UniProtKB/TrEMBL annotation:
It catalyses: nicotinate beta-D-ribonucleotide + ATP + H(+) = deamido-NAD(+) + diphosphate. Belongs to the NadD family. NCBIfam families: cyt_tran_rel, nicotinate (nicotinamide) nucleotide adenylyltransferase, PRK00071.1-1, PRK00071.1-3. Keywords: ATP-binding, NAD, Nucleotide-binding, Nucleotidyltransferase, Pyridine nucleotide biosynthesis, Transferase. Pfam families: CTP_transf_like. Catalyzes the reversible adenylation of nicotinate mononucleotide (NaMN) to nicotinic acid adenine dinucleotide (NaAD). InterPro entries: Cyt_trans-like, NadD/NMNAT, Rossmann-like_a/b/a_fold. Residues 19-199 form the Cytidyltransferase-like domain. GO terms for biological process: NAD+ biosynthetic process. This is Probable nicotinate-nucleotide adenylyltransferase. GO terms for molecular function: ATP binding; nicotinate-nucleotide adenylyltransferase activity. Its EC number is 2.7.7.18. The lineage of its organism: Bacteria, Pseudomonadati, Pseudomonadota, Gammaproteobacteria, Enterobacterales.
Length: 226
């Protein structure tokens, strides 16, 4: 669970909490380093990682829910910016972001600014998400650039929706609890979990792609071997 869910930080300023969901099969530097950079740009006080159990739009993970949770916890154990919320791993139904956000909003109250972090790739397919039109009723969306993805949305209607909610100043994210889209120029790391699994399957080294504690755990569990 998040370490600190108060509305204000120790300095008395409004606290901005950010949530970052993913399969994390396994978690790697392509997740962690851009999000850490994003936290500085957008002024996040804390980033809460939300491992998915049953991702609705992609193949099922190779590692078990417990193994993926343990890898995420190992990856961020020494970094106070991050905490881990395992709530989506406790149910066997698909992890719909809108339902998680509705629960988080209820827990944190109506006034606390909440942000949900997505990549440019997810923004381009957001209209395929369950009840996507309601996401901004519960949070801000903070978008990270992704290598090789276009910037324009597929239809004029979707682009108009994006333009109507987009803000260019990160400071606005603390001025309202939800409703904005902020796009950040985060450091780009073209690393994927698929690449890591393929390298593991081929017996190749992955030490440059993920934290040492995660790599050691993968070895100890014999994960991603054919």
């Amino acid at each position: 669970m998040p370490r600190n869910t108060s509305l204000t930080s120790s300095s008395g300023s409004v606290q901005l909490l950010a949530f970052f969901g993913g399969t994390f099969d396994p978690i790697h530097y392509g997740h962690l380093k851009p999000v850490a950079g994003l936290a500085k740009i957008a002024g996040f006080d804390q980033v809460i990682l939300l491992p998915n159990n049953v991702p609705p739009h992609r193949p099922q993970p190779e590692a078990s829910a417990q193994q993926r949770l343990e890898m995420v916890e190992l990856a961020v154990a020494a970094d106070p910016l991050f905490s881990v919320d395992p709530r989506e791993l406790t149910v066997d139904t698909p992890s719909y972001t809108i339902e998680t956000l509705a629960t988080l909003r209820k827990e944190h109250g109506d006034d606390c600014p909440l942000a949900f972090i997505i990549g440019q790739d997810s923004l381009l397919t957001l209209h395929k998400w369950h009840r996507w039109e309601s996401l901004l009723d519960f949070c801000h969306l903070v978008v990270m650039a992704r290598p090789g993805y276009k910037e324009q949305l597929d239809t004029p209607e979707l682009q108009n929706w994006y333009d109507a909610h987009r803000v260019t100043g990160a400071e606005k994210l603390k001025q309202k609890p939800c409703g904005f889209i902020y796009q950040a120029n985060t450091p780009l790391l073209d690393i994927s979990a698929t690449e890591i699994r393929e390298r593991r399957h081929a017996g190749l080294d992955c030490s440059d792609l993920l934290p040492a504690a995660v790599e050691h755990y993968i070895e100890s569990q014999g994960l991603y071997r054919q």
